[in-house]
Amino acid sequence: MMVEAGRNGVSAAPGQAVTAPALLELVEATLRVVHADAPGLPAVTLDSVLDRDLALDSLSRMELLLRVERAFGVSLPEQTLQRAETVGDLLLAAQHGASGAAAQAPPAAGRVPQGSGAWSPSRSEVLPPTPIGVPPGAPAIPEPAAAQTLLDVLDWHAQAHPGRTQIICLIDDIEHPITYGELAASAAAVAAGLQRAGVRPKQTVAIMLPTSPAYFFAYLGILRAGAVPVPIYPPARASQLEDHVLRHTGILDNAQAALLITVPEAMVVARLLQARLPGLHHVTTVEDLAATRAAPAPVAVHGGDIAFIQYTSGSTGSPKGVALTHANLLANIRAMVQVAQGTPDDVFVSWLPLYHDMGLIGSWLAGLYVGFPLVVMSPLAFLARPLRWLQALHHYRGTLSAAPNFAYELCLKRITDAELDGLDLSAWRLAFNGAEAVSPDTVQRFQQRLARCGLRPQTVAPVYGLAEACVGLLFPPLGRAAPVDRIQREPFTRARQALPAAADDLLALRFVGCGRPLPGHDIRILDDAGQVVGERAEGRLEFRGPSASHGYYRNPAQSARLFHDGWLDTGDRAYSAAGDVYITGRVKDIVIRGGRNLYPQEIEEAVGAVDGVRKGCVAVFGSPDPASGTERLVVLAEAQFADAAARVRLHDAVSRAVIAAIGEPPDQIVLAPAHTVLKTSSGKVRRSACRELFESGHVGAVAPTARRQVLRLALGAVLPRLRHAAAGVVSVLYGAWATLLFALLAPVAWLLTAMMPNPRRAWQLSGAVARGLLRLSATPLRVQGLEHLPGGPCVLVCNHGSYLDGAVLVAALPRAFTFVAKRELQQQWIPRIYLQCLGAEFVERNDAQRSVAAAERLAAAVAQGRSLLVFPEGTFVAGTELLPFHLGAFLAAARAGVPVVPVALSGTREMLPDGASWPRRARLAVTLRAPLQPDAATTDVFARAVRLREAAHRAIACQLEVD
C-alpha cells in the first residue's frame, strides 16, 4: 500500500546529517507503512537488499527515495533508483547528494541558477512557463514534404534554420539544448568514426545508450554512414545482469551487429556481449567515434533502405527484429502528424526511452520531421519523481506527450494534491495513452484529477500501434473524450459478441476506444475461419498500408507467418463499434477454458489491487491440462508475506479477487518473491516467458549475485569463443588448400587453353577445370534456371562481386559465351592470352566515344549469332549493394533484337571479398532468371535498352535478396 510522500513515519528532521543510524531508522519507518498489514518486519541493516530482503518493489523504492530526499534535504541522482541495490548503496548516494549541496559550487554550464525562470525540477515551487517553440514573428516552418529519408529531413532543417533548437535534453537538472546544426554536425562526426572503424553500408550497429545527447548523435550518425541502427536497452540493475546479457546476445546475433555503441559505465556488459558474439568486432563510445570531428565519405541512402531494426518487446515470445525503412517511418510520421494536426508551434515533452518505438519515432522523429522541439528526460527521472513530467509540461508549455497506461496511473498514486497546486497544463492538447492495455479507470480518473490544472477531457487520447506498423495505427479524432464501451461478459467470452451491457450489470467488461486507422491505412477483423466479421464481433485484427514492415530481419519463417494475402497480422484481437476500434487483448495471451475466452489484463488488474500483492507484478496465463483437454488458468503474483498464515490469507484474497472479476476461481495461484514475473524493457508482462518459468518448475528460485552472474556469463562465453577459434583454424586451412589447388591447376589450365583450336573447346576445358577445382576444395555450387537459356544468341547480364565470378560462370554455364571484358585487361599478357582464347571482346569504359563504338561492335557480334556474357556494373566493391548498370550490353541486345537473361551470382563476394587474397569457404549459387525480350512496340532503340536495363536490375536484385 502506497502513501503520499512526506506523511507519517519519517522520524528524521529535514536537513539532518545523513548518517547510518538515521537512514536505518528512516527505512524501518517506511517499511512499517509499506508493509502495514504484515505480521512482522525484516531486520534492516546496511547490507539489506532492498528488493530481496526488504520486499520493496519499484514503487516502494521510489517512495523510500523520496522520503530520503525530503528527510535529509538532499537531491539523489536519477540513477539511484536503478543502481542502489542495498541500504548501504542508498546511504552512499544520500551522503554524496548532501556533500554536493553543501559545497554550493557555482552552476556548471547550462545549470539553472536558483531564482531563474529556467528548468530546475529539484525546486519545490512551481516555476513560470518558458515557451520554447517557434519564436513570435519567426517565419513559419514548412514540412520537408519532398524528403525521401530521415537524412533528407535533417539536412532540410539544418540548412533552413541551423540555429533553431530541436532537442532539450534534461540530465540531472541541467538543460542540454541541441540545435539542428549541431545535430547534423555531430551525426556527421559519428559517421566518420564508424567508417574509420570499418563499418560498411547496410551493416548493423547496436546502440546501448541512456537518454542523452549522445543517443541522437549516434542514431543519425549510423544512418549517415549508410549503416542500420539497432536500439537495445542499457543494463538496468546488477541483479538482472545475466538476463540482460543472454537476452541481448540473441538480439545482436540475429542482427549480426558489427559494432556496439555504449557508455563507459556499461563497458563490462558490452564486453560480456562481445565475448559471446564473435561477429561483434568493436565496442566504443560516441565520444571516441566523434573525436576527430572528420567529415564522412558520402553514402547513398534511399527511401527503401532500412532506417532501423526495432526488436519487438517479446511480451508473447522471443524478440523479433522488425525491419523498418525510411519510407515506412516517413509514411507513419506523416499520417500521425496529419491526424494530430502537429505544427512547429507544438512542444513534445517525453520521458519515454529512446530504444522504444514510442519514444524514438512518436516523440523524437515526428518532431524532427515537423520542426517542433522535443523536451526529453531520462525514464529514471520520471520513475523517481513522476511530478517532473508534469512540471516539464507546465514549464515548457508542452502541447504533446505520450506514455503507457502505467505512467498515468503512477501520477495518480505518487503526486499529492499539494504538488498539483500552481501547475498549468492548459497547453497540453494531446496526451497519448498507448504501448500497453489502456485502463478505462485510469483514463477517467486522470482526466478528473488533473482538471484542476487546466487539463481538458479531450486531451487524454488512447491510441494503438505496434512495431510492425512503425509505431501508430489507430488514432482518435481530435476534440472528444475517450469512449468507454461496456459489454455483456457471457456473450463476449463464449460467442465473441460485444453486446452493450445494462447500466446495472456488475459483471460487464469495459474497453476503451482507440479511434480509427491512420490515413492511407486499412484494417480488417477476421474470425477463426478467416472471414471478415461485422460490427461488434470480435476477431483477429489485421492491417495494411505504407507504414507496414516488410517482415522480420533475418527471420523468413516468422515473416511468412506475419502476412495473410497482403495483410499484416497484428497478433491482437479487437472489435469495432460506431467507427471506433476496441482492442481486447493479445491473441497468444487469451486463455481459453471450458469454451470461454478469459482476458489476462482484467484478472491481473484485479489481483494487483489485493493488499500484499505487488501491483504491476502479476502474470495470468493458460497452461495445458491434458486431463481436461482445456487450459488451466494460472495466476502468478509477486507477494509480500512474513509467515505461512499470511500466505494462506493472501492466497484466499487473490482467489476472491479473481472470482469477483470473472465469476469463477483460477485453477492455480502461485505466490512468488519479488522479480519473479518477467517483463520486457518497456514494462510489459512477458506472459509466455512466465508460463515457461512456471512449467519448468523454476518459480521462486533465488537469483544469483551479480558477481556470480558475471562469472557464469564469462564462462558461458568460453565455448562460443572456442568455436570461433576453431572456425578460424578451419578457415585458414581451407584458404591454404584452395590457394594451393589454384596455384597447381591455374598454370596447367592456362597452357591447355592457349592450345585449344577455338573458343568453344577452350570454354569446355576451362569449365572442366573450374568444376574440378570447386570439387577438390569442397565448395558447393548450386545452378538453377538453365532452362531459361535461349537456343539462339542472347545477352547474359550478371552482377559482379569478386574476381572469382568469371571462373564460377564458366563452371556453371553449359555452352560457350563471349566475355565482355574491360580494355585494361588487354594490356596484361597473362589475362589477355587466356581471354582471347575464350573469344572475349574488350571494351573501353572511360572514353565515351570508344564506348559507343564498342556497343555497336557488340551489337554486330550478337547479330552474327554470338552470345555475350556481361558484368553491367563494370566493377565490384566491398559492399553488398547492387551498383547501377551501364547501358552498353542492353543497347547491343535492343539493336540486335535478342533477349537479355539476368543472372544472379551469390557467394563469390563472401569467398573472395574485394581487397582479399585469401579465399574463405562459402556456398556459391548461379541463378538464371526468365529472359527479357526487347519491346517490339517501341521504335526507339535507346528506350528499349533502358527498359531492358531496369528490368534486369530489378530481377537480379530480387534474386539476390532471396539468396
Describe the protein's architecture and organization:
By secondary structure, the chain is α/β, with parallel strands linked by helices. The chain folds into five domains: 84 residues, Non-ribosomal Peptide Synthetase Peptidyl Carrier Protein, Chain A; 326 residues, 3-Layer(aba) Sandwich (Rossmann fold), CATH 3.40.50.12780; 103 residues, Luciferase, domain 3 (Roll); 96 residues, GMP Synthetase, Chain A, domain 3 (2-Layer Sandwich); 235 residues, 3-Layer(aba) Sandwich (Glycerol-3-phosphate (1)-acyltransferase). It has 31 helices and 34 strands. The strands form ten sheets. A seven-stranded mixed beta sheet has the order 28-34-33-29-32-30-31, sandwiched between helices. Strands 18, 19, 20, 21 and 22 form a five-stranded antiparallel beta sheet that branches. It has a four-stranded mixed beta sheet with strand order 2-1-10-9, with helices on both faces. Helix 25 packs across helix 26. 48% of the residues are buried. The N terminus is likely disordered.
Sheet with most strands: strand arrangement: 28-34-33-29-32-30-31
Count the strands? Answer: 34
Shape: elongated
Portion in beta strands:
15-25%
Tell me the name of the CATH class of the largest domain.
Answer: Alpha Beta
Mean pLDDT: 85
How many domains, as an integer? 5
Amino-to-carboxy terminus distance:
58 Å
**CATH level-4 homologous superfamily of the largest domain:** ANL, N-terminal domain
**Helical region count?**
31
Give the biggest beta sheet: 7 strands, mixed
Low-confidence stretches: 1-13, 101-118
Cα radius of gyration in angstroms: 32 Å
Helix content: 25-40%
* CATH third-level topology of the largest domain: Rossmann fold
| Class by alpha and beta content | alpha/beta
The CATH architecture of the largest domain would be: 3-Layer(aba) Sandwich
